[in-house]
Amino acid sequence: MFKIFNIYIPAKMTLELLVDMAISMLSFGFATFTVYLLTPGSHDFAYWVKQSTYPLMLYVGLTALLYTALGIYRIEAENTLRDLLGRASVAFALAFFPVYWFTLMFTEADSSFRVLAFTYLYQMGALILFRFIMLRQSALSRMTRRILIVGNGREAQSLSRQIQDHHHSAYTVVGFYPTESGDQVQLNGQVFDGSIPLEHVVLEERVDEIIIAVREHRGGVLPIRQLLEARILGTPVHNLPTFYERLKGEVPLESMKASWLIYGGGFTQGHIRALAKRLFDLFSASVLLLTLWPIMLLAALAIKIEDRGPVFFQQERVGLFGKTFKCMKFRSMRTDAEKDGVARWASTNDNRITRVGAFIRKTRIDELPQLINVLRGEMSMVGPRPERPTFVDMLERDIPFYAIRHSVKPGVTGWAQVRYAYGASVEDSKRKLQFDLYYVKNNSVFLDFFILFETVRVVIFGEGAR
């Protein structure tokens, strides 16, 4: 796994992406050759190759972007064959028209529809053969990193379960090296004899990484000298927050200390970063408003027809540095949703939601008016979701480090929204904060692009949260 623009890119994802790009290229090439054989004419194959070069490049680039956006490379999910082909089919459908239009407008080829039809058939077959069968059985199995967990308490137990349940294709836990922490629990795996030097275990078990899964590091709990020996031998040693950040894209509150935030990397702001983000916000919000205004108009008409109430709903939310602003949304609840003046969490099957409201909430259409907040500078396209002042006061009392999320502008979409299932409670807010902290710590324009791509998956497949 390596890091590009503050995003951890798993080697597994990189290999799968390269294989899929090769499959897209070969499928398009074979499809072009097939149509050439089936189409009698005066042009030789060299002419067909020349005409298909730029459509081929466009098709490969689009499919790579769409595969990423639609969640085919999610390391935390084991895609079944049905899921893989389903998402690949959606990607093909979204790429079809741009490639078809480009071919008609900028080349002399008149068989683009047949070429794309054969491309789809070849691509699905190749995905089954190479991507799902051969790749999974060979290359990916050899890319699993071997992890040694130092610790035998609840933190070690939780980490082991996370890896075994959700990340076993990328990591293998070879066992646990005990410490003097005292918080000992039943562990699912080999517990090595603490009298054996740790560096010997590392060499004999061919350990790739050591993870320190101990809550308290002081008082002689850790075998510091042995960890130093292992590190000198070239084995990376990570603490639990750093490894969780890489593994799950979140910062765990229960194992995080203020010192890690102070001395660790990330949290880069500065004028250049702020200017780049503002330009990104202005451009993307303007493009989306110009593109989606017909959908917004239809949503407004549907809301008005259903109950004759107001189309828009404005609510006070907490923004950058705790400053409040009026957040705009399409109204999705009844006009008397909070007639008693008591703020309530919105729930999944909330009976205050109208029929039109249920649809626009599910498809995220109700959030589109917030593009105006983005143009005003009150919000960003990507960031932690803005919360109501009443809830913020409560959450800042109950959850440590909650105020950190207000060090950046709130967003129309965010890392927590594309990574965590729907929920509205203090416990859900704690979990979402872990994702928000990851975003605040690692924010960049590249990460913003990535989250927008992930939002496409959330909208199309109904995943994620709000």
TrEMBL record:
| Alphabetical keyword list | Membrane, Transferase, Transmembrane, Transmembrane helix
State the superkingdom.
Bacteria
Give TM regions.
21-39, 54-72, 84-103, 115-135, 279-303
Which InterPro entries has this protein been placed in?
Bact_transf, EPS_sugar_tfrase, Sugar_tfrase_EpsB_2
Gene Ontology cellular-component terms for this entry are: membrane
Q: Does the keyword rRNA-binding apply?
A: no
- Indicate where this protein resides in the cell: Membrane
Membrane topology note: Multi-pass membrane protein
Asked if the record carries the keyword Transferase, the reply is yes
Task: Name the Gene Ontology molecular function terms of this record.
Answer: phosphotransferase activity, for other substituted phosphate groups
Q: Where is the Bacterial sugar transferase domain?
A: 277-460
As for family, the record states:
Belongs to the bacterial sugar transferase family.
The protein here is known as: Sugar transferase, PEP-CTERM system associated/exopolysaccharide biosynthesis polyprenyl glycosylphosphotransferase
The organism named in the record is: Thiomonas bhubaneswarensis
